[in-house]
Design goal:
Elements: H1 2-22, H2 36-50, H3 54-61, H4 66-73, E1 83-87, H5 95-98, E2 104-109, H6 112-121, E3 128-132, E4 146-151, H7 160-173, E5 174-186, H8 190-198, E6 211-212, H9 214-223, E7 227-232, E8 238-244
Parallel strand pairs: 1-2, 1-4, 2-3, 4-5, 5-6
Antiparallel strand pairs: 5-8, 7-8
Helix pairs in contact: 1-2, 2-3
């Protein structure tokens, strides 16, 4: 919260508090279960004051173009007739680029702010549905109804048990032959190891990010029925997982 105050200033912070209240969210302390609600609300408040799209603010703050990443990792995996499921869309940095290019999106998130914000932000931009969850289940999504599923910046916050539940749910909702893609923090890469080592945490505390070994995720996905599992790694913190539900 202190970083948000310094970055936005008191006037913008008041706007952030108002937005949190408007979207049905209580301000959470540092380290709480949904630490990104404050971040997203800060982008919305700053964008409202400057006339920008909040996700342009988000791209700047997180030093990356969601559009370029979507072109690289997502666009080749679905088409204009696809039903696309996104787990953890956040403020919609990737959603806004995927939605115009598919038939329908199913958006699933733990955050009340995210769900309420996306219903307003995406209105009139395409066909979509938003579902709030409080457990690693996709109960609102029908069996074999999804052509492509993805998650960006989500599994780096999930413990292995929740990851396993989501893999089972993805397998259930995907059509035969459909693909799953997500990224995760790779403990085995130089960038991942550096992030793990350098993140400050008190004794008995928990890091913000969760780290995986690529072979662990590969084996878990195969255990849950996925095939053609490919994990792409480089020197950076992220590795990229893709797999297919067999025909």
């Amino acid at each position: 919260m202190k970083n948000l105050v310094r970055r936005l200033g008191r006037r913008a912070l008041n706007g952030t508090n108002a937005l949190l209240h408007r979207f049905g969210v209580q301000l959470v302390p540092d380290g709480a279960e949904k630490p990104w609600d404050e971040e997203f609300a800060g982008w919305i408040a700053e964008a409202k004051a400057s006339g920008l799209d909040p996700n342009d603010v988000g791209d700047r703050e997180w030093r990356g173009s969601a559009l370029e990443n979507a072109r690289r990792h997502l666009f080749p995996r679905f088409g204009s007739h696809s039903v696309v499921l996104e787990l953890g869309p956040g403020s919609g940095r990737y959603t806004r680029h995927v939605l115009p290019r598919c038939r329908e999106m199913i958006l699933v998130d733990y955050s009340t702010l995210v769900c309420n914000w996306l219903r307003e932000y995406l209105r009139g931009k395409g066909r979509f549905q938003v579902h709030h969850i409080d457990r690693p289940l996709l109960a609102q999504v029908a069996d074999r109804s999804v052509d492509f599923a993805f998650a960006n910046g989500v599994f780096e916050h999930l413990d292995p048990d929740d990851t396993d539940f989501f893999l089972q749910e993805f397998y259930r909702v995907l059509k035969p032959g459909a693909a799953l893609w997500f990224n995760f923090d790779n403990f085995m890469s130089p960038g991942g190891l550096r992030l793990f080592r350098d993140e400050e945490v008190q004794a008995g505390g928990r890091r913000i990010f969760r780290f995986y070994h690529p072979e662990f995720l590969e084996r878990m996905a195969e255990m849950r029925g996925f095939a053609e599992v490919v994990i792409t790694v480089d020197e950076g913190r992220f590795a990229f997982f893709q797999a297919v539900k067999p025909l």
